[in-house]
Backbone:
């Protein structure tokens, strides 16, 4: 029986069971797989301890905002006249100098009025030329006629003067003869009548000379009046052309009010644009791009200058492009007003979007430049954008307000447990 029992178990196993004092001896591991598993567990444990001590878990505050040019703001370019919007001179993202023509406003009514006014100018100018020609011919004819009349009147004055002298001398002689009784009174009276007629002819001839000059002055006055009226009509038509040209050329153009970057078209082409309507938005400023971040009111006080900000722009997925790296340069001491947000964004919809959680605080983030990056700015976690960035791009930002080791989160619980 005992032989059969011994055959069922190995001798080494029976010896171990019969010698319990060997239980305190070190187990010998001879398997390679066992050694590898043990080393892996130890490495994982060491890695966890190192991470708990040396690792960092950031605490971040999130918000929404928009890129803008440093030292500037987004300004609207408005239409100065009513008409159809056409002919875009620039594309979104292009730099536009101040006064550059962004678009044109077609004004059919003004064009028709301008054409009619130009026709009036041509007609009035022709009429003025005809009038001046006629007046020149008439003036020459009047001058010739006046000279002839003047010559005739001069001859009449001379003849009448001679007769007057002759009749005056004769009258004097006849009166002496009549006084001595040698001449009849009828003869004296006849001579007197002849002298009076000579005086009248002399006066009439002299009056004729004066009439010639008066007639010339009157004719010149009429000519000057007609010429002045024609010139005034032409000047008025030319002024109308100038005004309509200005309205068509200057008021018919939408120009950039500032030097900056075209960030948005606010009116579709081919539609009617009323006077004073915003047509495009231009981001001003000559400095580097900054990000205006609007954060909830309850979180803003934790943000200070110098903190790191990661900005994820719309259209640039973080998984593919990464995030822009920036630094807080200022935090508004008071909540931003809707008017203040509108002054930056020029968009009432964005005012509501950025104020959903209450009146936000404005945080200005300076993007860190990187000359080696195609965009010109530093990116984290990705290759970054391959094209230059433009003001007006929306996005979200995360401000790192604190960085703590994982162990610091566990220690309070360990102390609390130890105290219990």
Residues:
């Amino acid at each position: 029986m005992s032989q059969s029992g011994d055959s069922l178990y190995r001798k080494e196993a029976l010896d171990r069971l019969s010698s319990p004092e060997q239980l305190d001896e070190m187990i010998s591991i001879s398997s390679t797989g066992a050694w590898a598993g043990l080393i892996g567990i130890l490495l994982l444990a060491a890695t966890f301890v190192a991470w708990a001590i040396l690792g960092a878990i950031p605490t971040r505050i999130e918000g929404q905002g928009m890129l803008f040019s440093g030292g500037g703001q987004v300004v609207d370019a408005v239409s100065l006249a009513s008409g159809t919007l056409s002919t875009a001179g620039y594309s979104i993202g292009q730099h536009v100098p101040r006064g550059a023509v962004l678009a044109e406003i077609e004004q059919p009514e003004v064009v028709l009025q301008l054409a009619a006014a130009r026709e009036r100018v041509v007609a009035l100018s022709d009429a003025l030329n005809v009038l001046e020609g006629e007046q020149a011919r008439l003036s020459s004819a009047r001058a010739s006629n006046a000279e002839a009349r003047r010559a005739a009147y001069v001859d009449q004055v001379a003849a009448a003067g001679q007769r007057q002298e002759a009749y005056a001398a004769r009258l004097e002689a006849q009166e002496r003869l009549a006084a001595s009784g040698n001449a009849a009174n009828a003869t004296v009276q006849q001579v007197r009548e002849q002298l009076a007629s000579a005086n009248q002819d002399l006066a009439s001839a002299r009056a004729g000379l004066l009439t010639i000059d008066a007639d010339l002055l009157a004719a010149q006055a009429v000519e000057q009046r007609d010429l002045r009226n024609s010139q005034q009509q032409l000047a008025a038509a030319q002024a109308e052309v100038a005004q309509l040209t200005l309205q068509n050329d200057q008021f018919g153009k939408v120009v950039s009010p500032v030097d900056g970057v075209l960030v948005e078209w606010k009116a579709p082409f081919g539609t009617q644009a009323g006077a004073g309507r915003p047509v495009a938005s231009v981001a001003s400023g000559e400095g580097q791009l900054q990000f205006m971040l609007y954060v909830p009111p309850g979180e803003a006080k934790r943000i200070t200058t110098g903190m790191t900000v990661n900005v994820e722009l719309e259209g640039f997925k973080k998984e593919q492009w990464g995030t822009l790296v920036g630094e807080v340069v200022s935090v508004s001491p008071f909540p931003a007003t809707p008017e203040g947000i509108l002054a930056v964004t020029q968009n009432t919809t964005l005012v509501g979007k950025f104020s959903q959680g209450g009146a936000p605080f404005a945080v200005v983030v300076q993007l860190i430049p990187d000359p080696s990056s195609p965009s010109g700015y530093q990116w984290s976690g990705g290759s970054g954008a391959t094209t230059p960035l433009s003001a007006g791009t929306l996005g979200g930002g995360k401000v790192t307000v604190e960085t703590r080791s994982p162990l610091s989160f566990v220690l309070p619980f360990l102390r609390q447990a130890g105290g219990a």
